[in-house]
Write a structure and sequence with these properties.
The chain is an alpha/beta fold and 329 residues long. Helices cover 43% and strands 17% of the residues. The protein contains 11 helices and 10 strands. The chain has a 5-stranded mixed β-sheet with strand order 2-1-3-10-4, sandwiched between helices. The radius of gyration is 23 Å and the shape is globular. The N and C termini lie far apart (55 Å). The relative contact order is 0.16.
Amino acid sequence: MRFDISRFARNCRRGVLLALLAPLALNAAAQGYPAKVVRIVVPFPAGGSTDVLARLVSQKLTQMHGQNFLVDNRPGATGTIAGAVVAQSAPDGYALIMHSSSSYTAGFLYSKLPYDAARAFTPVVRCAISGLYMVSVASLPVRNVKELVALARRRPNELTYGTVGKGSVAHLAAEMFNSAAGIKTVAVAYKGAAPTLVAIASGEVGFTVLNILDPQPFVKQGKLRSLAVTSAKRSPALPDVPTLMESGINVEAYLYTGLFAPTGTPAAIVKQLNTEITRIIDEPQTHAWLVNNLGGEFSPHTPEQYAEFLKGDVANWQKIIQHIGLKLD
């Protein structure tokens, strides 16, 4: 076969030209974005913390652009229904998902899903992060984590804990605690935070791990007792509550809410959304609202830094998932 050097040269020039034009195409996509309605899919019903944060962001983005950012609630199957909707959408920035750590991690729990959780989404921005809150019923004869561990060791497989759902990060964080403390307690699953709180306040279970602000009204009423938060540092929302690490238990676990786009979404659009949402959430007034109403914190970061965080976070959850042999269908 004869080697056609002129054709080779033309192909090389074409390749170089395409490489030079690619960043321009991405910038053009961002400059024209958004040109139509943007959907932010939420994996939970209206009214929860993920939904509230998504609505705050969508409202501010709508005001910023004069183009509607609409929240689309798609609850069910621990967030994997919503995950499938967005994973199968065009990667053009017009279908986004506001995942919580529970709904994002659920993608790694189910054996049969129409998307690959590890490859389906591009991280955009982590809008809020906090530890979780461990509390016990006031009638349980413990005042701190050390006493809870001692009680559980005296009564293996007798002490119960409530969970907001099998496979939720609250459930997994409680199992991390069991593993790190070397104790065996029994999970009792409820359908959400409200029935879990009712169950523990009535003494139906001994302790629970929940979103950081959910148990606080019951703590103030004296029905529940504060034990610890699961973050590495104390929460600004609960500055008097020690961490599990302070209590001698090597557990670090987080609840976060973050925006994702389908994989393949132009990098310029991802960067634009990251910059704009950072500007929205990092305002002092919004930052204070985040702490006081959701117990969350925010610090500016790039999409790449968010991706690195997720890599470590997912690995952390997968260790405990494998340890307890959990798999959902």
